[in-house]
Structures are given as structure tokens and as C-alpha cells.
Design goal:
Layout (H helix, E strand, L loop, with lengths): L7 H7 L1 H14 L6 H14 L3 E5 L2 H11 L7 E4 L6 H8 L3 E4 L22 E4 L11 H11 L2 E5 L19 E5 L13 E5 L2 H10 L20 H11 L2 H18 L6 E2 L14 E5 L2 H13 L24 E3 L4 H9 E4 L7 H16 L1
Parallel strand pairs: 2-3, 2-4, 3-10, 4-5, 5-6
Antiparallel strand pairs: 1-7, 6-7, 8-9, 9-11
This protein binds pyridoxal-5'-phosphate.
Length: about 375
Amino acid sequence: MQVPFYGHVRQYHSLKAEIDANLQEVLESGQYVMGAMLKRFEQELAAYHGMKYAVGVGNGTDALWLAFMALGIGDGDECITTVNTFFATAEAIWIAGATAVFVDSDPRTNCIDPALIEAAITPRTKAIVPVHLYGQCADMKAIRRIADRHNLAVIEDNAQAIGARGDTFKIGELSDAVCTSFIIQKNLGTFGDGGAVVTDNEKVDRVIRKLRNHGSDRRSCHSFGFNSRLDDLHAGVLSAKLKKIDEWNDLRRHWAARYTAGLAGVQRLALPYETPGYHHVFHLYVIETREPAQRDRLLEFLNRHGIDAKCHYPIAIHQQEGYSWGKAARVATPLANSERNAGCCISLPMFPELTEQEVDYTVAKLREWDRA
Ligand SMILES: *Cc1c(COP(=O)(O)O)cnc(C)c1O
């Protein structure tokens, strides 16, 4: 049996009429850049978050550095974040001209460990950048308390967790800006690249609207800016898909629960942890081998049996080649948990359109490996 890692085409077929209708509407409108469909999607996205503003940009990485720039974070400033994330979290800090300061992650959630943040703060620290890793919110209440004590901005890297919630907080409620990515493999993904910044801060919204469009908010008048827009065709795809996101996230949760129940009692694997009261949206279902030496063997075993498992992320940022050009980086704590996570993680196939047969086959193969 073959179990794919993604279900992009299955998802397209499940929503083909709605997506095609929106694409057709854009094509017939003649407005392909900064048009009516983008405006509509931005309003829907802000409303979905229960927030005032959403601004579409070219991708999730741009969403992050545009938010930093709009909040006045740049040369000489420091942003505190983690190393077990997609490279773009740190990349965006470097693009903004700031220094990435790395602390270790919580061993259960693998999100930033708030207990380590305060000791990493210096007079140059401007922001905390928590990543809602694998689809679960970081501990935003603790992060907000620290940010308030030290007058820091909080920018949420929400590329992986649209639709997630904390126990008593929503995404966006305890931060200055929420940055998301719509690349196809994310929970809300278009057929290509896209991103957005969601915020209640009028200035952040206004500044990013200008920055994304060559520093222009009036025809032929420009201040400093870039070109980073969300195209209307992508906005049309995303507008159709946004109506399904909660249903799709619930399906992800359903498959996660089926994996977890099926794998109960395994000896050589650790299963994902869901913080009590949180609503994890399982962008990824990440297990860990107890021994780092077993990870590549298990991955090879799964792949050999047709299961397209992957690793997120096998090389932590401070171990990357690209780390050398990000000279503006400082490791503020031992990174033992992040390194364990990088060495032991395996992501199982996870997308809403999985089937029971695919999940159960994957569970059966994992149990077979666990017994061997
Ligand atoms: C995907 C991702 C990004 C970057 O998004 P792009 O749209 O690919 O630029 C940033 N941070 C995290 C955690 C991601 O998973």
C-alpha cells in the first residue's frame, strides 16, 4: 500500500466547484493584482481570526519580516526564538537586519520554553517570536507576561497553526501581529505561495499595505517599499478553502486521535503531546524514536513499505549551513531539547483527506517495527 504525505489533489477535487468558480470570477473580472478578490479574502481572514485587519503578502517569510519592519524592528535589535522550526523564522529576523537569539524549546510541546526567555533578554531585545510548532500554540500567556514586563513586541509565527487555540486565548489576542503562510502544504494552502499578517494594530496594517506595494498607497507616489503581494487568483483559492478550514482541522484531529489510539503502548516511540485545554490542529503529527540512532532506520522502514513519512526538522537552525551567513545570531541557552527533537523526529502522513485504511496500515507498520 502507498500512503502519501500530502493530499493536495484530493483536496482540490473535494472543493473543485467552489475553487473553480472563484478562479473564474477573478479571471473574468480582469483584476488580478490588488483586486476585489484579495480585498474580500483579507476581510474574511480578519473576521475568521476575530481581528480587525489582515493584509495579504507574497509568502509566510515576507509576512514575518514585513511585520518586524512595521513594528520598527531592524538593525541592532534582537528577537528571541527557537531553532527547531522551519528555517524561515530565523531567516526573516536576519532579512529585517536583526539578531536571532535562540533559546531551547519545551520538551513536551517543542514550542519555545517561556521559562528560558527572561535570561536571554538584553537591552537590545525588541521582540519574542514564538512558533506554533506542528499546529499547537506556544504558551502565549507566559510569553505575553514576559513581554509586558520588558516592553517587548510579540510576533506569532503562525505558519503551521491557523485555527488552533490555547486554553483561554485565541491566536492574535496576546500578540502584536500574527504571520501566516499559505504555501500549499500548510493547513490553509493555495496552489503556490502566499502569506498574510493579521493584527488589531492599525499602524502595522497600514505600514505593511504600503511596504508590500513599492511603498505606495497612492498612484505614482512612493516611499521605501518592496513587491510582496498576494495575487487575486490565490486569494480566490484561499477564500473558497477558508470556509472549510475548521472542518479540515477537525479531520486532522480525528486522524491524530486514531494514530494515538492505535499506537498506545509502543515502547520505542514517543507520541505527540497536546497541552491540556489547547486545540492542536496537527499541521504535522510528529512522533519521536526513543533513540536517535533508530530514527533513520525507522524512516527507511516506513518509506520501504510505501509510507511517505518525513522529518520536520532534522537539522536545527544553529546546525544549518545557512547559520553562518546569519552571523547575527546568538545561542542563549543549551539547546538539548531542540537537538533531541531534530535527531528523533518523524512526521507521519497527515492531511484531512487521509483514509482509515491509510492510517491503520501506517499504525500496523509502526507496531511491527516497535515489536522487532
Ligand atoms: C512555512 C513556514 C514559514 C514560511 O512560509 P513560506 O510561505 O514558505 O515563506 C515560516 N515559518 C514556519 C514555522 C513555517 O512552517
